[in-house]
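## Example record

The block below lists the input lines for one assembly entry, exactly as stored, with component labels intact.
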Amino acid sequence: MTDIFNAFYAQSGGVTAVINASACGVIETARTCTDKIGTVFAGKNGILGALKEELIDTSLESAQTIAALRYTPGGAFGSCRYRLPDSEESNTLYQRIIAVFKAHNIRYFFYNGGGDSMDTAHKIGLMSERLDYPVTCIGIPKTIDNDLAATDSCPGFGSAAKYIATSVKEAALDVISMQETSTKIFVMEVMGRNAGWLAASAALAMNNKSDAPHILLFPEVDFSRELFLARVEETVENCGYCVIVAAEGIRYADGTFLSASRSTDAFGNVQLGGTAPILARMIKDALGYKYHWCVADYLQRSARHLASTIDVEQAYAVGKSAVEIAIAGQNRVMTSVIREPEETFKWKTGSVPLEMVANVVMKLPDNFIATDGFHITDTCRAYLAPLIQGEDIPPFKDGVPDYALFKGTMAEKKLADFKF
Amino acid sequence: MTDIFNAFYAQSGGVTAVINASACGVIETARTCTDKIGTVFAGKNGILGALKEELIDTSLESAQTIAALRYTPGGAFGSCRYRLPDSEESNTLYQRIIAVFKAHNIRYFFYNGGGDSMDTAHKIGLMSERLDYPVTCIGIPKTIDNDLAATDSCPGFGSAAKYIATSVKEAALDVISMQETSTKIFVMEVMGRNAGWLAASAALAMNNKSDAPHILLFPEVDFSRELFLARVEETVENCGYCVIVAAEGIRYADGTFLSASRSTDAFGNVQLGGTAPILARMIKDALGYKYHWCVADYLQRSARHLASTIDVEQAYAVGKSAVEIAIAGQNRVMTSVIREPEETFKWKTGSVPLEMVANVVMKLPDNFIATDGFHITDTCRAYLAPLIQGEDIPPFKDGVPDYALFKGTMAEKKLADFKF
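Predicted structure tokens for the full assembly:
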């Protein structure tokens, strides 16, 4: 019995349509390893749950409730945007986390997040050794932005990509119908502050070269008003309409975000706001075309009803693998997805040192962006296409998806309150 | 042979996820009535197709192509925003339409649109009699806004409603995860310039009274900044977060649209734009909560991947019925949906005089809006719930819906060009 330890699982940063599938993978796998892992505690609101000693006892949940995590979007236990201090040395926050782990016999820490979180997991691991209470720290990748290093893709991205490709395909059919007398321009804004993976995925809507979306705007490419407007005009002349997908993070050559810019509308009013309305207005003012725009925002990262089967499977697998490699003795690594170098798409899980992933942002590589900067290459398409395959449709009830709000029961506190 | 006449079908105004299902109903039914109806011509870009004599010959399309219309969003033949003059008397445009009908032996006119279009169909019918070339004019209801009179619901609405309810349910799970340290407010803007049906449908996301969406804003209710902000604050205090769904057409008591208002942001800059960002900023300025907002725009009316089975069936049925009642001798009527007065939801098609529908906007009745103006009543919920039932999922290929762009072949022109 003495080498059975508890585990702590936490979700970090912006959630996705499939982060709970990773949680499901962790918990279901841990339940098959009762000779090694006792209870899996989940942090209420991510790492804050460890700091506040708010630990959800997942062992009290039925197998059915845990299975439902696989198809429920959002972060079942709560996530947070909370960055621990850069240095863990003698920092009371890191010490507190270890104290809570110790109080609850926790020796496994599974942290489901992005690059920042991998850095945190690494530091908690270091601190645990310094305090002579070694905790196995395993990262589990998650981000719709697909910008983590050392993994073929990030769970969460494939489903967001599928949502974007589907939505732009549908909206384009609408615009095609209306172009003769009304809307000629449609601008869709997608997430991606620093990397253009989501904007790139819109290209998967296309069957033919002339199909929408006609123009993709990436944070990796300096935005030029002149080149952009010329391309819009050319597209409308050739196709009758133009569909544009823009990452929220596009910026001018001087580094100014478009969304932070002051554009002046036809009435001389200064306008601040999202990237999509700014682009739409820019086109209207210069070329006179009638436009519509949309900002999908959270819809794109929570649209579990349109999840990619591959994405759900990978999300589950990186959670499952995290438990397996922890038990096998790996430490301070992140589970990853490895694409097999074969003609047909095959993948497996792997692991990489947390230090390789911490605080790195993977942008679109140059050979994924078309020479003119307005589209993707065939190489990029070949990379993206497998990630949106398959429809993993959740159960529906009364016309809407039958998602369960996870209530959870908190484990009894063993320590005094901690102020921070 | 002499009493076999051709038919003209046209799509009008903003398209929907299921308007092509109505087209499918018209064409498939006409193909079973070869003793009455010859060729079904579809107007290229709606009524413009009649004016320009641009008639798509649907008889050249395979049964398979026509069947695919049932699951393809947008307007397959093109729609238009083009309003014929108010008076048809001695107007050359109406005369031209009749001349084109005559040249192509067309004696049936099926017009698939909203209130304006029913008016147009009515006037074309009158003109055809005046010119002694009587054309049977049948309207087919379509609008995501659900604001047509004399029909239980409008095909297109149910699918948009299902999209909105599903999307807000998913986005709310995201906000719930993030509320502790980040986003507390989510504002979703939906269509509805004059009627709040789509905003009302967001309530179908709820399982319990405390669930999102917490606040619905309708064009039917004067917007009060004070009452709104008080309700937002109260909701955040009680629930920890607040999800708001706002119709694009909400306005102050003096009639000014919020979207046309000038709100000043924290930096003193004047801001113009959609209703959602204006509301979000208003909350931030007054209460300080972190927010996200989305504007679904065309996505909500083209999301065929999330169509309601009932909506698709009704869309098909009102198209089918239009052909059947035309052959049976009805004229200048619109097909409609009639809800049976039974406990379990049942419906059938009916017909109503075009004059009853023309240019009427059906707003949310008073007893559908909660006393405080911020939500719907149980009566409204009972009305809405059946309309989003069932998932009519289109075929997928390579991870995205396999919609076909309808190409079509134009019938040879028989008349000289017409300038207008």
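Chain B has a mean pLDDT of 94. DSSP finds 13 helices and 15 strands in chain B.
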